[in-house]
């Protein structure tokens, strides 16, 4: 649910930030709720002066949004997420405070040539940097725009003191930065006693970026939100979902989808997001969704989404063991899982998207998907919680008539029941195809919480996956 500001101080702080930002920054900040996006967050500490890299809220003209190393602690204005549009070859720094990318101003002159400013609304050449590891564990940042290393101008004066500029041809103390993780995992809150309830769940790989043959491949947020809302029910008289799992989803679509869900259901929702990463040397960077076809609009990071009732405020991303390269030597996506808790219902909801299989993809022999299935079983095992989980597992079920790596989900079926089994855990472990002639999309629940229905949408378009629906009868304690 769109959050209400609960204190006057917080309201004043947000108004001050909005006043300091230009219109483009305010728009970008509103496009992705960083508080509900579970990507890695970093603070950069300059080795030249021991202070944190900070985005300046004030200033005007070419001084607006300048970046200096003058923070004494890693607060909101010192936090960044790393993004990549080229599989980790370069990274771009997005400010948590503004939602904008850091740019190297290579057309400025004199002492401001190459200065860094936080003003990029999308990733271009000026927003790309190479991470160059140093022997002491720090990193240098080399601008893709001019080939220069970023320096901390510790000898500057006034507003230019500790200014960051891409202007050096070599790496010295002024060009070294320590990257410190500032996001932290937290345990799920204690659950209440389980009570009997009926739960309706929907999962859909929306095909929002990877496959250009999909109608959703480069769609905008409003169009996708409308499409999701149009298929919330398995039939005209079917139940509305209590949770929605989304794969191949773009970060900046989360807020419009949340608003559309609230309009369509009359209930409050939270939509959480977890990015899929690429390895960028020793660090990870979030894969960036391609810009929307209409208007070249930035759609944020690429990954998975989880829509749950707005009572949920705890959510967690889990990185899954993934191959670093495919058979051609290309970098591959580092997969993830995402969970949210509903403590009052003793309910944990999780979604994931496993590595792709087959000889032309990431995981040719299924070994990584086997590891991911084992990791997922450990993730969903939260004491006191009943867990319902699913998504695109990129593998066929154990009793499928054809398909590779059919043993991957054997351990999952041994402990949980899949919706196509329809309340009978001894039923064949197969199901109707969810993409072309294969089933690779799933919904699982505890074996003492039988599915009372399992359905597919009649059509897949504008995705290449059908939507999968399940209704679960959750027992009391």
Automatic annotation (TrEMBL):
InterPro entries listed in its UniProt record: Actin-crosslinking, Endo/exonu/phosph_ase_sf, Endo/exonuclease/phosphatase
**This protein's record includes keyword Signal:** yes
Q: Does the keyword Coiled coil apply?
A: no
Note the superkingdom of the native organism.
Answer: Bacteria
Q: Which UniProt keywords apply?
A: Signal
- Signal sequence coordinates: 1-28
| Pfam family of the protein (one) | Exo_endo_phos
**Coiled-coil residue spans:** none
| GO MF entries | catalytic activity
Tell me where in this chain the Endonuclease/exonuclease/phosphatase domain is found: 202-465
Question: By what name is this protein known?
Answer: Beta-porphyranase A
Q: Gene encoding it?
A: porA
């Amino acid at each position: 649910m769109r959050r209400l500001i609960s204190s006057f101080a917080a309201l004043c702080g947000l108004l001050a930030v909005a006043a300091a930002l230009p219109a483009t920054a305010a728009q970008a900040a509103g496009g992705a709720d960083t508080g509900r996006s579970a990507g890695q967050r970093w603070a950069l500490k300059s080795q030249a002066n021991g202070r944190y890299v900070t985005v300046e809220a004030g200033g005007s003209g070419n001084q607006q949004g300048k970046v200096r190393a003058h923070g004494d602690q890693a607060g909101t204005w010192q936090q960044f997420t790393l993004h990549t549009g080229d599989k980790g070859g370069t990274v771009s720094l997005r400010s948590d405070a503004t939602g904008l990318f850091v740019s190297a101003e290579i057309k400025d002159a004199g002492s401001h040539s190459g200065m860094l400013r936080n003003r990029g609304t999308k990733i271009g050449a000026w927003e790309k940097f190479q991470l160059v590891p140093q022997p002491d564990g720090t990193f240098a940042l080399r601008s893709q725009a001019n080939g220069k290393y970023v320096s901390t101008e510790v000898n500057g004066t006034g507003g230019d003191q500790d200014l960051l500029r891409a202007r050096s041809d070599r790496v010295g103390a002024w060009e070294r930065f320590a990257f410190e993780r500032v996001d932290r995992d937290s345990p799920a809150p204690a659950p209440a006693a389980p009570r009997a309830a009926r739960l309706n769940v929907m999962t859909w790989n929306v095909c929002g970026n990877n496959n250009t043959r999909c109608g959703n491949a480069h769609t905008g947020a409003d169009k996708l939100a409308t499409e999701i809302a149009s298929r919330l029910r398995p039939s005209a008289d079917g139940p509305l979902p209590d949770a929605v799992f989304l794969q191949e989803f773009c970060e900046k679509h989360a807020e419009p989808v949340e608003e559309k869900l609230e309009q369509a259901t009359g209930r409050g929702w939270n939509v959480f997001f977890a990015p899929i990463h690429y390895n960028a040397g020793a660090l990870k960077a979030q894969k960036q969704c391609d810009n929307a076809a209409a208007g070249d609009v930035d759609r944020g990071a690429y990954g998975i989404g989880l829509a749950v009732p707005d009572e949920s405020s705890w959510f967690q991303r889990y990185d899954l063991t993934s191959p670093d390269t495919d058979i051609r030597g290309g970098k591959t996506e580092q997969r993830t899982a995402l969970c949210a808790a509903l403590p009052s219902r003793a309910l944990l909801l999780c979604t994931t998207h496993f590595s792709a299989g087959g000889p032309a993809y990431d995981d040719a022999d299924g070994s990584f998907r086997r590891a991911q299935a084992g990791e997922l079983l450990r993730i969903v095992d939260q004491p006191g919680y009943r867990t319902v989980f699913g998504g695109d597992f990129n593998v066929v079920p154990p009793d499928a008539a054809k398909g590779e790596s059919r043993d991957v989900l054997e351990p999952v079926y041994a402990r949980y029941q899949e919706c196509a089994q329809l309340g009978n855990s001894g039923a064949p472990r197969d199901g109707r195809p969810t993409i072309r002639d294969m089933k690779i999309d799933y919904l699982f629940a505890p074996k003492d919480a039988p599915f009372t229905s399992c359905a597919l949408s009649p059509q897949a378009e504008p995705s290449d996956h059908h939507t999968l629906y399940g209704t679960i009868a959750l027992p009391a304690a």
